[in-house]
Model the fold of this input.
Amino acid sequence: MSTHGYVSGRLNLPFVGICTFGKYPYVENWDAIDADVAIIGAPFDFGTQWRPGARFGPRAIREASTLFSFGHGGAYDHEDDVTYLPSDAVRIVDIGDADIVHTDTLKSHRNIELAVRAALAAGALPVVLGGDHSINIPCIEAVDDQGPIHLVQVDAHLDFVDERHGVTRGHGNPMRRAAEKTYVSGLTQIGIRNVSSTAREGYEDARRMGSDIISVRRFREIGVASVLDRIPKGKRYYLTVDIDGFDPSIAPGTGTPSHGGFLYYEVLELIDGLAKRGEIVGVDLVEVAPDYDPTGTTAILAAQLLMNTIGRVLHCRQTSG
Done:
């Protein structure tokens, strides 16, 4: 019995303790990050055009992620015969949230950018929990020294609006802002479907500025291998996932749900192939708004996808290097 009254070798079940992502260590000092992956919260939702609430996404995803923290020394996948995230070989930390200043988009975005830069400076893969999709803008601004990068987006919406009533940094603008960057070599936008947030001229601009747009129907028609073949091979990728890229039957907790979306394994197989195809240098997952999903399923989906994404990225790095 220890001096704190606990038996040594605590069971530490998922519902016990403080909710960092995956119950990985919390690092408050951003000058002392020593890890392969740094989890960053970006609880910002001032860019939404309809239902708010994604500011609570990082907390919900962190809590849901504890479901996958049973402490088995890693996550064994019997189909792949691989133990992902082996506890003795990967270092993952949660560095908390970027400071959000209410009503101040520019300052809040700058703070998100600083958090991502801190992770990159430490040699850690930044994995950002949104927040609405506008948080991708500072994330892409933070990887200006990582280029050239190819941006891969999973989303229901194109998010290629240039400006609307003076708004250039809302959640309908991020892919347009990314395409303007000289170090973004191209975009692959996957899952875009039917009624979108971008008008026809936005689609025309996207294609003119180097974007390949693939709908869910087209994805299913040609298959994941053919979709991956359309993404330039051997490049450095930034991956951005909007949870509304999934069908609202499994992800209702989002501000702008759109029927006809992806199921879990479709996106996981895409990300698995992307990790094998090149180097993923940054990830964000956005638009989880937990108050619209009392079951918590949306946050669990987000956490499960991120855990598996991180596992595959690190496994590919270890086996290739």
